[in-house]
Amino acid sequence: EVQLVESGGGLVQPGRSLRLSCAASGFTFDDYAMHWVRQAPGKGLEWVSGISWNSGSIGYADSVKGRFTISRDNAKNSLYLQMNSLRAEDTALYYCAKDVLGDAFDIWGQGTMVTVSS
Amino acid sequence: SYELTQPPSVSVSPGQTARITCSGDALPKQYAYWYQQKPGQAPVLVIYKDSERPSGIPERFSGSSSGTTVTLTISGVQAEDEADYYCQSADSSGTYRRVFGGGTKLTVL
Fold this sequence. Notes:
By secondary structure, chain A is mostly beta strands. Helix content of chain A is about 0%, strand content about 55%. Helices cover about 0% and strands about 45% of the residues of chain B. Chain B is globular, with a radius of gyration of 13 Å.
């Protein structure tokens, strides 16, 4: 079964850091780009960051550029998101998503919740 | 930055046809994708490359493209189709970015 399982979310104070992980199974992880997408409570989807299969291409949304870093470990079938200088507006459910067709997302995890509050 | 614009809400009665639009300047050059999201669930891809339907998605879901607007059409809407729908595309500026529309709440009356 193709599966993505996120972890690492929680309650964190503004200005602090958090590292999210996504464990992939059921497919050849290093064949695909991967992404992080977030959804603030009651709001729409926002693409956060993406990384190509070999980490050669990386992109960030303007809202997180310079604060978040995406990475992957193909040997461990894992995707990561290092989030620094967190702000209240980063509060959201963070989904890990598998790339398809080089443009879209066909497999999603169930998400991990990040709450930034003092 | 690149934006995709959707109507906040669409309402239809069961059995009718729902049409949800998505507008963006780069859509003539970039494919659009559509996702369905029900409360408490992760999004599900229902249309890819403007008009293709993934396996397992009912035939009543279809997509089309015309200029800077793409449209998701749901024919013979059923109560189970009530959900949020998001369009998505790639940023055409050469950066490794993706963008979502703001989402449309489909209400089945």
